[in-house]
Amino acid sequence: MIFRTWSDSLPADVEVCPVQLPGRGTRVTERPFTRLSPLVEALAQALAPFLDRPFAFFGHSLGALVSFELARQIRRQYGVHPVRLFVSAGGAPQIPHRVPPIHTLPDKEFIVELRRLNGTPSELLDHEELMGIMLPLLRADFAVYETYVYSTEPPLNCPISAFGGLRDHRVNDSDLEAWRAQTNVSFSLQMFPGDHFFLRQPLLLQALSQELQ
């Protein structure tokens, strides 16, 4: 939902097309993905009719990994690349996981980890009924990330722009710098004030506008 207002701050010739995955928003009754490969395959199929025009991908956190693998899937299936890949608050895919998986933890321990990550409002975490609805979706997201296994392929033939938060204790600038190995073209890295969820700030949209122009 956060992406719906982005078009107001981006160049007029850029159309923002947010992706709503199963389990979210109007698709809340649909079963969420728990593995990356079927998720990427579904996205590639849905986007196929729109690949006849210039396009870019932006992904934040788990979305960075999804966007990267989607770019590789589209290259394999259709032989095309995005004009640019934007990866935000997500370490390069070839970096092994440094922390133990949490998606199989009991509910209480899982919620403790969510609090530590500081990405879920405390009002939601304290609301037992709402958390009963949200926990399966949150577990599914972590399962997608934590079960991912990187496979070596040639670097992408499109520029990669990486963004990070200066106070992000989960993804540091070295994790972001490692994205350089995934492109044959240019790479850039910009760090912004904030933690892992620095997404809601005008500086990021300004950077996107400059890169797209």
Task: Give me the CATH fold name.
Answer: Rossmann fold
Average residue-wise pLDDT: 91
Q: How large is the share of residues in beta strands?
A: 5-15%
The structure class reads: alpha/beta
Number of strands: 4
Which descriptors apply to this entry?
four-stranded parallel sheet, about 210 residues, Rossmann fold, about 10% strand, 7 helices, alpha/beta, single chain, 4 strands
What does this structure look like?
- Helices cover 37% and strands 10% of the residues.
- It has 213 residues and is of the alpha/beta class.
- It has a single domain (26-212), classed as Rossmann fold.
- The chain has a four-stranded parallel β-sheet with strand order 1-2-3-4, sandwiched between helices.
- Helix 6 links the parallel strand 3 (160-165) and strand 4.
- Helix 1 (36-47) packs across helix 2.
- The longest helix has 19 residues, at 128-146.
- The protein is globular, with a radius of gyration of 17 Å.
- The chain starts with 35 loop residues before the first helix and ends with a helix.
- The model has no long low-confidence stretch (mean pLDDT 91).
Brief summary:
This protein is an alpha/beta fold. It has helices at 36-47, 62-78, 107-117, 122-125, 128-146, 173-177, 202-212, and strands at residues 56-60, 84-88, 160-165, 187-192.
List the helices and strands and how they pair.
Elements: H1 36-47, E1 56-60, H2 62-78, E2 84-88, H3 107-117, H4 122-125, H5 128-146, E3 160-165, H6 173-177, E4 187-192, H7 202-212
Parallel strand pairs: 1-2, 2-3, 3-4
Helix pairs in contact: 1-2
